[in-house]
Amino acid sequence: MASAAAGLSRVRRAFDAGLGFVLGTAVGVPVGLALYMAGREALLPPRLLSSDVILWTVVVLVALSLGVVGARRRWGAPGGSRLVRGALGFVAGAVIGGPLTFVAALAAWDASGIPDRDGGFGLMTLFVLAPLGALALGVTGALLLARRG
Known about the structure:
Number of domains: 2
Low-confidence stretches: none
Order of helices and strands: HHHH
Shape: flat
Distance between the termini: 31 Å
Helix content: over 70%
Structural class: mainly alpha
Number of strands: 0
Largest sheet: none
Radius of gyration: 21 Å
Strand content: under 5%
């Protein structure tokens, strides 16, 4: 009986470490990109500005570092499960919010009767309004699921 509980505990720890690594690297990629962009002009000589090797080195190092930090986190703790619920709520809200905003904006434009000869509104809907709707509903979903006890 104790052996089965110890085996389950090891599986749980391995799952928590894997989940932490995935969440850490998922956060690390945009953080690494932001750090690269922030330091690019100030720290790199002009001849290296077009080098992709430096970009991906920074991104991979930051992502792996945050992945290791995430793997060491105890996700079974109350704060860890809240973070996981919030991340899932954000993804679900964004997946629903982007297409919903896109369809609603195009339907509203079509109902207005204003012609869109050059397709500018369609492009604005696709590249501006839909991402904003995805972000808004993603944050809403994250807050709602993270607050659930």
